[in-house]
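We treat protein structure as text, and this decision shapes the records that our systems exchange. The tokens are whole numbers drawn from a learned vocabulary of local backbone shapes. Below, we set out a record of this kind in full and without editing:
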Amino acid sequence: MALRLHNTLTGRVEEFQPLDPPNVGMYVCGVTVYDRSHIGHARAMVVFDILYRYLEHCGYRVKFVRNFTDVDDKIIARANAAGLPAIDVADANIRAFNEDVKVLGCRPPTIEPRATQHIPEMIAMIETLIAKGLAYPADGDVYFAVDKFPEYGKLSKRKLEDMQAGSRIEVDERKHHPMDFALWKASKPGEPAWESPWGLGRPGWHIECSAMCSKHLGQPFDIHGGGNDLIFPHHENEIAQSEGAEGRPFARYWVHNGMVSVGHEKMAKSLGNFLTVQDAAARVGGEGLRFFTLGTHYRGPLDFSDERLDEAARGLGRIYETLARADAALAGVNAQADAEVMRQFREAMDDDLNGARVVGILFETVRAINRELDAGGSRERVAGWRRAIGEIGAVLGVCIQNPAEYLAREKRAHLEDSALSAEKIQALIDERLAARKAKDFKRADAIRDELKAKGVLLEDSASGTTWKVER
């Protein structure tokens, strides 16, 4: 079965066939760098990081481009409020974004272009659009003429007359049509500006991505991605600009992830209902946050709550416990990844990147490992399952740390938060053992309950008593 992806342009799940196999060009709209990234941004980062990884797992050579919008009304407003140059605000937030990407375990794209580095390309594209009668200057601004592009609305499945009737558009008599959008904006006091044939100004938002796609991937290219909130107007406008300028298709597969919501309302900075990547990672770790985003198919909405975030982290911890147990039992045993588990994995991923189904496969494999170890069964079979989890984890970007070290860090973090120490816990374990030998089971149970109340679980076995963190 070949990889199949949902293509927003056609509304169908289609077999992925790159233009120039094994090469793949993929562009994903990045962030506008005026603030820290939140969990909604994290979901998009993880979704396309996994697509990037899986394409390479399938043998493709991927050129992955993700941009920074580093000139924008919001950046300018933040800069003016802080009394700083806009470029300083953008630079600081790009550094913060890179920290968030690292926390999430995302691989860096092949190229991370900045909008302000591509002003000449934007101006050239705008000039082409004007020459073709698809755009027009107006008092230092330049607008795209939507009614001159007959296919406008083909991505979002909207008709121009319906958009006009149902929209709240500020009246601008300079526009030929109310839905026309800005390609270039005349400069205002206190704004960064560049020289252009229409005077000092700066680019509109949509033209940025068209110019960067064209420069770094050419046209057409294979995959354009982003959140589904970008379908209209941003991606619709990109298509109009790029296809209008070049006279040929823009991107072949349009892949969009669903939004993160809070109580079924979109998570957004404008609504104040967001949790930053930094804050979420402080609660459950970057890998725990990444694992949370995998719990729902990438195209569906993902409803956030602290409880769901914590549950995802607990699930990840249970997987690591089993991996640590397997590693301890498998010293010197090597095996190929279990063929059946890998077949199920590829089948799920080829089915429009069904990462949620893959998470289910991980848990099923973990249960199989524990059953086999409990029964004293085949170490080779366990080794095959363990290897499969490692290979799957390399694509999902989870379960790739050393399990023993992961659990040790978890213990240390819990001790710091609970005012306990490893020595104190061990002393209570020794006291409990002495109480049991003296048949003082009431005291032994009280010690177990005391530790449990502090988030420490005791596990008795033939080899002695160990403890772990209750997640």
